[in-house]
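fwd from M.: "can u put these together and see what the complex looks like"

so here's what she sent:
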Amino acid sequence: ETGVTQSPTHLIKTRGQQVTLRCSSQSGHNTVSWYQQALGQGPQFIFQYYREEENGRGNFPPRFSGLQFPNYSSELNVNALELDDSALYLCASSSVGNRRTEAFFGQGTRLTVV
Amino acid sequence: GDSVTQMEGPVTLSEEAFLTINCTYTATGYPSLFWYVQYPGEGLQLLLKATKADDKGSNKGFEATYRKETTSFHLEKGSVQVSDSAVYFCALRGDSSYKLIFGSGTRLLVRP
């Protein structure tokens, strides 16, 4: 068991709406990353947060935004949802620095935009 | 930019058959290489990794060797089980990066 939990597990939204996905990192990890996995594809990096600041971003528009809280939990927010945003959203926690660890993934949130 | 290419699936094998899933990469410097596995309805689990050339990662009977000369990291298992049925992703992380770059995945189906 990785200890990374995501909520909700499934979500249906209408085009144009906004959505917030949540992630609770594994204990002791200080970094959280978010990935989008479209059906039949590999995960694509959205962004990473370290010490509550975004410190890396993939090729996603600004309507994808995030937060990391002092307890290292995180949110992914997507505004103005589009049909192509339908995907599995994966959160991964890890540690950087002297006690570096590899990324541990949660089970994901399946978002369907209709 | 950095990229990962995997063999297309699905790969269908009988139980106890030998498995190879090919993975090649393009990257500058010395990336770390990974294999992740995704079971139906679940997230990704790290299967094995290698961080430098000629390293062999291994776990649960799976192995992969980091071949810098051929820029490859092929996944192998000597005898697959039905429970190995899943989607397998090859991935890399650049030597000065934090993000993982994934291949498109290879679905493995093992028949009894």
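replying to her w this: The CA atoms of residues 64 and 102 of chain B lie 16 Å apart.
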